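for the record, two folds in this file. i put them one after another cuz i was lazy. first one right below, seq on top, structure tokens after. the second one comes after a little note so u can tell where it starts
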Amino acid sequence: MITSDRNAGELKMQAMAVPPVKTVPICFLRSAVRHAAARGDDVQALLRAIEIDPALLEDDNARVPLTRYAALHVAAARAMNDESLGYAALPSKVGTWQMACLSSVHPGPIGHALGRMCKFYRVLERGLSPQLVVEGDDALIEIVGPDSDPLRDLYAYEMTFVVMWRFVSWLLKRPLQLISVTLPHDAPHHLAEYRWMFPGAEVSFRKPRAALRFDRSILDLPVRRDERELHQLLLNDVGEILVGMTDTATWADRIRTLLTSKLPWLPEFEQVAAQFSIHPQTLRRRLAHEGLAFSTIKDQVRCEAAKYYLEKQALSIEEVAYRSGFSEASSLIRAFHRWTGMTPCTYAQSQRTRSVSAQQGALAAAARAAPNTVSAAFLTG
């Protein structure tokens, strides 16, 4: 459940399109490079280096693969030599995350590992001060900003909490079951993303504290990772945690992957449950805890498949419909308009226009560079 003090009408959950390789909205990328751009770094070069079209930053509806976003996060941190990407009071030099992990992953209970990591960051005094708190039957990872004031940008809390949740899940070798997430800011426009960022958690905004809440008993569970596994995790800095290649797949993720592999035929719920050797009622409860229904996941899979095939110019609407799991084109047209507010043809045309613009931009850049190349060849000839 997602709650806030804003008008309920503003918080309608739209069908979130999550592809086989999960995507994130373009606002995540804008936030990742915001402070790099402000200090004059070549953001376009950072984007091109990881195969992201810089023009996407201008498209409010664009989404990119989570892997590309994670790569950008790491690239921006290295360019700035600041793993907090400029959001904390003082920079955290590249390598801070690795040292925090190395200081925490040792044989013993999860509580000790998590406590050591929080203490490591508090000692640094960089503006983000996580602390482990026990309240009755609950445990909390709480973040306190400078002088106990909330940080100005919600992104700092979001990414810190996502990384902390995924890291604890990695230590456990299974997803950490969250009770709630509370944040001091207004609900963001990308609220639907919280369903995969904090699966199953009740999220509320405009609260006096920023905290992840989970069952206290988790703290007594053993760390199930060793130093060898940690070194493997750290090969890609924090990017590996952001991508989620850490045995933390939710049931929604597993079902999404299964359905994608079955396209254009989509199995019924009972058949999916049988694939996982689980009773349908049990699977239904687990999905409900993650805040998703099977029908929503099917829509997500079909929507992303349709978008992918619509970008293939040689395919007809009928062929796109078939490959996306629809019995006829009219069904695709109705569903696609419900998901995106556009017809499939309009979407396909917008993608072709953007592709042409990108190609023209590349040709123009090459033309501008050509005189310099010729001059250099002449001078060295």
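(here's the note) second protein begins now
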Amino acid sequence: MTRTASGARTWRAATEAALYGPHGFYRRPGGPGPAGHFRTSVHASSQYAAAVAELLRRVDEALARPPHLAFVDVGAGRGELTAGVLARVPDDVAARLRPYAVERAPRPAGLDPRVEWLAGLDEAPAGLTGLLFANEWLDNVPVDVAETDDEGTARRVLVRADGEEAPGPPVDGADAGWLARWWPLDGAPPGTRAEIGLPRDLAWAGAVRALGAGLAVAVDYAHEHGARPPLGTLTGFRDGREVRPVPDGSCDITAHVALDACAAAGSGDGPAPAPRTQREVLRALGIDGRRPPASLASSDPIGYIRALGAAGEAAELTDPAGLGGFGWLVQPVGPACAGLPAALTA
């Protein structure tokens, strides 16, 4: 880090303005949305929406088919996942479905009128029953960055709009407590970094509280205690490429999520579920990347080509070195869905 950075502020404050300010990356009108800058599972294949629709069906069955079934898409982007789920649920589920898309950007044109667009979860009706699904939302909840100095003290990292950094004051208060529990820096060499995930824990706990009964799911880049990256994961994305994170509104700014900490926050005093991988969950939901039998090529050439394409998409979604390595936090709310996490182990 440089020793001077006039006009610098914490990464959390800088990211909040860069992503969600009046001219921020996610609120800029007329842009392509997240799909124009990075590839998520939602954009990789329609099979992802099909898997989420299957999960919603299982939640519906566990809840004994309530008269109003909620699907809450948190961090909805341009509503692609919500639209995909609506297109794939059975008619009897669709008739009772109440879809909500939660996104700080304005409602996109052409979105299905059945979808209620919310700027925040606080606008949702209280005590929803159904599935809350947050795909790559928590990684965009802004966090502060800490770095150890030459004496081993964890200091907040300050940053200017041009990306120049400077050391700030020592981490204290609740953030210091979070580091001690979830990402300890005691004894770490100078320059070791950590992203302080407390805001994400609080955001996830609030999301879980939005449900009266059902299942809350967070899917994201993730790491766990004991295997945190020593230099952190803060980075940027623009036009499909990873770039230096500069908090000027020109790029996405993201960092991997300590999903184990979020799980504990969302569980309150109860046992916290262990995050699992996208590969195992999607396989349990019927997404299979195996190639079709070669005999199909002669008996049904067109069917073989379609099946081959579907297998390729499924393989991308479940690739353990890529999207399949994403963490899934599957958190039941109430007793009706308590058995669903175990059923999602392939």
